TrEMBL record:
Pfam families: PRAI. Residues 6-207 form the N-(5'phosphoribosyl) anthranilate isomerase (PRAI) domain. It catalyses: N-(5-phospho-beta-D-ribosyl)anthranilate = 1-(2-carboxyphenylamino)-1-deoxy-D-ribulose 5-phosphate. Pathway: Amino-acid biosynthesis; L-tryptophan biosynthesis; L-tryptophan from chorismate: step 3/5. It comes from Sphingobium phenoxybenzoativorans. This is N-(5'-phosphoribosyl)anthranilate isomerase.
């Protein structure tokens, strides 16, 4: 396994889950959000999550989930990644109620956006700095967009953190060099088309991270 944690997200087939595990991913991610090309119904999400061994974190990516959805999904995963406009108070309540490790995506376009993470310190277990998607976009993530990584150079995140947004096998080493990210998260960058993961791209991404 790489020194730097790797999350391969938006997996939707047994073959691509296996590719992520074979590549040494520390986390595998599954999206439940109807507008996403990676959306999985709960039974399918659960079946794929079961393929991961205990040492690999199973992550559910959710957007402003209500308690009923959390109750249905949380038993199948180790980690819930909140990828919407959830407030720090709502995040803290989710963590307390469902007892899962909680990640919060922080959408970033400018330096000022980084400050939003501070309000979540103590309420969540990890901040995931991700590129902000355009106003009115269908998706709050998973669009293969990147932000200016220099914003994170020298920045001291207020909590454990990871980097997301527009990463791929060709740029991830540079992203790690600039930001010092301890965890990298990829979805679009290991796909051949939206929602279609590519086992060779997954392998290349994991390989690129392992050289860092
Ligand atoms: O992937 C999606 O469709 C998605 C839907 C709703 C919320 C988040 C989503 N994706 C997450 O966004 C980041 C960055 O993805 P990318 O590498 O830029 O495509 C990642 O955590 C995805 O899982």
């Amino acid at each position: 396994m790489s020194r730097i944690a790797i999350k391969i997200c938006g997996l939707s087939t047994p073959e691509t889950v296996e590719a992520a595990l074979k590549g040494g991913a520390s986390h595998v991610g599954f999206v439940h959000f109807a507008k996403s090309p990676r959306h999985l119904e709960i039974d399918r999400l659960a079946a794929l999550a079961r393929r991961a061994p205990d040492h690999v974190g199973r992550v559910a990516v959710l957007v402003q989930p209500d308690d009923a959805l959390l109750a249905a999904i949380a038993p199948h995963v180790d980690i819930v990644q909140l990828h919407g406009d959830e407030t720090p108070e709502r995040a803290a309540a989710i963590r307390a109620r469902f007892g899962r490790t909680l990640w919060k995506a922080i959408p970033v376009k400018t330096r000022a956006d980084l400050a939003a993470g501070s309000a979540y310190a103590g309420a969540v277990d990890m901040l995931l700095y991700d590129a902000k998607t355009p106003k009115g976009a269908d998706l709050p993530g998973g669009m293969g967009l990147r932000f200016d990584w220099d914003l994170l150079a020298g920045f001291r995140p207020p909590a454990p953190w990871g980097l997301s947004g527009g990463l791929d096998a060709d740029n991830v080493a540079e992203a790690i060099r600039i930001t010092g990210a301890p965890l990298v998260d990829v979805s679009s960058g290991v796909e051949s088309a939206p929602g279609i993961k590519d086992v060779d791209k997954i392998a290349a991404f994991c390989n690129a991270v392992s050289t860092c």
